[in-house]
Write the structure tokens for this entry.
Amino acid sequence: MGRADRSRLPQSGAVPVPRFPVVRDGCLSNGLALRIAEHPGPPVVTFRLMMPVGSASDPVGSPGLAALTADLLDEGNADRTGLEVHAALDAIGARLGTEVSADATVISLTTLSRYASEGLALLADIVARPRFDDADVDRVRALRRSRLRQMRSVPGAVADRVFIETVYPEHPYGHLGVGTDESLSCLTRADVLGFHQDAYQLGVATLIAGGALTHDQFVASAEGSFGKLPVRQPTEGVVAEPMCFNDMRALVTNVVLVDRPGAVQSELRVGHVAAARQTPDYHTLQVLNMVLGGQFVSRLNQVLREEKGYTYGVHTSFDCRRAPGPFTFQGSVQADATVESIREVLGQMASIGSDRPVVPAELDLAQAALTRGFARGFETAGQVVRGIGQLVLHELPEDFYDRFVPEVEAVNIGGVTAAAKANLHADRATIVVVGPAEIIGPGLDALGLGEVMRVDALTDEE
């Protein structure tokens, strides 16, 4: 028997192309859209009711209403108090979740397969017949306001809020989903009830199911609960259509400094409006992001952390939404290295599409990072159902996940360079700094990026 040569790493084989479970489309007898994926395995099922009504649908002057409404759904319905709702969930081992993004509201429930019908009945009641008692509204609103006040002392949260408000002025994306202390203080039960009646209509919803049941079993379970609900369209204008959003890509440079006296670190956000989810450059942008700042071995992390020692780590992302979403650099750096870090970020943004294009080794690492673990994202019924939700929300082709690995592997250096030129605008980026103004201010002025807007402290009036 020959001896293995342990001095050399074995060659890795070709990346297996994962196959996403077959998704069957349909409707219940009342017209509610249905997507089902059978997923043999543990006796577990997951349901997601998705509506294209997120924080972008918050009424003008009422940021946080969509999130507050979703947060109140499990506080009781027509037949049960909040405690009774959770007792009923516990009785079948169910886990309920609510998510509000800029573009959608999702209510999910996971339970054992044998309790699928009971779980769907609970989910239907929670969504369609919430109580919204005054006492519950007051209590949950107070908790959310307390959280917002706490967030004022968290530099990252402050930077996130100022960044999104600056990048998207007077725009449906121009606020965080949690809202503001001022807006929440004005919201009432009538506001919550009105938003629910306007927005929570099944005419635009999709019920997604996946797990260890057959297609026919899923349909039968859903018919017994959701199939009995009325299907109506939401009030006109509640669903924020992407084509109605103002085009925010006429970019200008904005520099905002939020003073945090005595801080030894600065929280940075740099970015601008970039691409929508439907962009044909989507896969190329994922590769570009990996090279620039999307992983530990990215250019920005290597320079700012490994070479200069300014930070524990930084990150970039393209948040592709139904309308053009933001490209964002984020990280914390030494206060006295803030200006140099900004200069480096802007320089890397500019050079990757010009004089420092991606090299083959970087391309290989980025593609491997995106493809090698891709199949692990769909191991459970919950992951599969979440993936289907993205297909529905963004109107993606049914074979999107089957094509993901080949599409990423087909990205080339020329494509990355072109995508960088089209989607990265270092000369028109918004820069937000939360840190000590006495240390940072003079250097920011000297950067020559225009007037620096100074904020002494973050309040809802800023």
The mean pLDDT is 94.
